[in-house]
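User: Here's a protein and a ligand (adenosine-5'-monophosphate-propyl ester). What would the complex look like?
Assistant: Let me lay out the input and then the predicted complex.
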Amino acid sequence: MLCETLGESRGETAARSISAWERLVRRPTPGNESRQSSIALGGGSINIAWQAVDRHAETSHRTHIALRWLGRSGMARLISYSGLRDLTNQFANVLVGLDIGKGDRVAVLTGRIPELYVAALGTMKNRSVFCPLFSNFGPEPIRTRLELGDARVLVTTDRLYLRKIAPLRALLPRLEYVLIVGEDGPAAEIPGTLDLAHLMAAASDRFTIPPTDPEDMAVLHFTSGTTGRPKGAIHVHGAVAAHHASARHALDLTPGDVFWCTADPGWVTGTSYGIIGPLTIGATLVVDQEEFDAERWLHILEEEQVTVWYTAPTAIRMLMRMDPARFRSLDTTALRYIASVGEPLEPAAVHWGEAAFGQPIHDTWWQTETGAIMIANGPGAVVKPGSFGRPLPGVEAAIVHRCRDGGVALETTPDTPGELALRAGWPSMFRGYLAEPGRYNACFRDGWYLTGDLARRDADGDYWFIGRADDVIKSAGHLISPGEVEAVLREHPAVADAAVVGLPDPLLLQMVKAFIVLKEDRSESESVRRDILGHARRRLGAAVAPREITFKADLPKTRSGKLMRRLLKARELGIPEGDRSSLIDDGA
Ligand code: PRX
């Protein structure tokens, strides 16, 4: 690991840890004490990493803990703002040494380890583009994203490399450098890769951030449409204005806060609020390497004295299954604000928050494309359980209907369902889908960005979520493309055709279900079912693969051959099949 281990156990005083970290992280180079990283800021230059890290490192805030990392093994690592500045400077210099520059994509597939945070911010310092990948993805989604994103560099761990990347490497000729982090100590020596710790040790911890245009690409997030091809949402450095403002006004963050965003940076929440927004505020990030574990999470809230907690309804539903007495014995007096994102937050969850933590859970609504929270039950709002609140200052939202002439009609009658739209132009708005201008342009009409979500607005101006207008699946907070899953299913030698839908699930919100047409010479059997499910898990990863399969003789399609997933879903649920023409062709 590139960040030295302090050997601190959780709960030891921050002050002691800060000075220990400062001693360890400062390299014994002359002039260290007066070292400042500098930015050649010309008029209007904005760099996310400078706003998040260096700005604080140049003030008395530099000894404040930026990152409190909780490892699987029980170890904790603390990185101060100045420590993070130095490490991210080193990483930026590593990229320079490899001739990786402005606009070059640096993908990161690591799980939540300190190197991920260093790589993300160091990449942005160098004006290269941070492209996070979810470490639970299987090889297929990883390959597609590395290829579409045109990644020149991949930062990953030795274990993930051997399991997921090595078998694909020959298919990725444009991937020039793989930088390896050791998962359990020093990185294993792997041909065709470089040891990140060695490169870091040799790199200077001084770096001058070049002038960065607010419109320079900073982050590339892949998200799912209905088709098999993921969409690379382009985000720019200027988005930091929205990250900062929303961290303050939707999450109530201040520099003294200990903030725990439970999302993985492989997804947009884990980048915008698991890294950028809270650091621009000067808060302390809590990062847990481990996957969800109810007892562990309660322990973290208590032990780390988390003050603001940002999580997701699937996790909340799992905690709601615990014995209420457990919460009575929990000391969460430090916890003063809880927020949720990614799926509908049901009224029962809001009430549960009140019972378990003495406060409501504040819903926030946004998307990969919006880059930052757009609508929320912010601090001070009267939370109406079930509503996701009102637009943040500077955000204009509306309920609209798509017209046949290509425009939109605004819905003015309260409580009437329609599509949620946002007036285009907020600072963190995505600037394109990589190499797909048609798909991007199809999202906008009459100056409105159409979100693909169905919602209603009540007479007070509060918004209520109804569902997706397209076939995209939400499972455990993750957006899943039915097309991407279907493409992998069709690779199986027994499969002639496949359709994938999301069915209601009490825990995950939606469960991925596949309908399979077998090839004529194959017949249904338990072993074929298991084989297809196993193939999908291996190729896609457990978070994306279907959990259930039903065999069908054929699949409903339009005359032009378009799969009618809605119909399959309605039949499965025994609900009316509805107006077939209402399916939105969103170009996705
Ligand atoms: O359908 C909405 C749902 O998540 C979608 C965006 O997913 P993604 O791009 O992966 O970003 C997730 C985290 C920002 C939206 O189109 N969604 C997000 N927040 C909420 C929500 N659904 C209901 N309530 C929310 N608060």
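Summary: The longest strand covers residues 495-505.
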